[in-house]
């Protein structure tokens, strides 16, 4: 009987005692944006498209997670995917390369994610390779911009609206710790 209580106590400690262990918290921040690749884009010609400003809402996200800007240790991009919104049935087969860059007021533009030599059978959604940079200075800003650079390997007859879905992982100290 004593062994059962001891085992139960150890299990509860493992399950609940390490929830935000050591004064550190980890959480995700998700962002969406859309952009359009205009029809008639030339083959093998790099084309850049800017997204409208993206509100980071970082202050409120940090507060909900019991932290704040000065407690952030790292913010990394864990996933970035693209989905074609319109026209229906359009696939990414017209693209050869795609790169996304992030910028914010007072900060240099840096590579966020990319995919090179895309297979023509990629379909209507594609997952990009995430840069291993620390993006905390960009996400801590009130807003940031994304620039998309594409190279087509086929002539595109339609405007193509594309949705960007990204997830950033935040590592931070809790308020009142460390």
According to CATH, what is the class?
Mainly Beta
User: Globular, elongated, flat, extended or rod-shaped: what is the shape?
Assistant: elongated
Based on CA atoms alone, the radius of gyration comes out at 21 Å
Q: Which stretches are low in confidence, meaning pLDDT under 50 for 5 or more residues running? A: 1-19
Number of strands: 10
Helix and strand element order: HEEEHEEEEEHEE
Helix content: 10-25%
Mean pLDDT: 87
The amount of beta strand, in percent, is: over 45%
Task: Tell me the CATH architecture.
Answer: Sandwich
Outline of the structure:
This protein is mainly β and 178 residues long. It is built from 3 helices and 10 strands, in the order H-E-E-E-H-E-E-E-E-E-H-E-E.
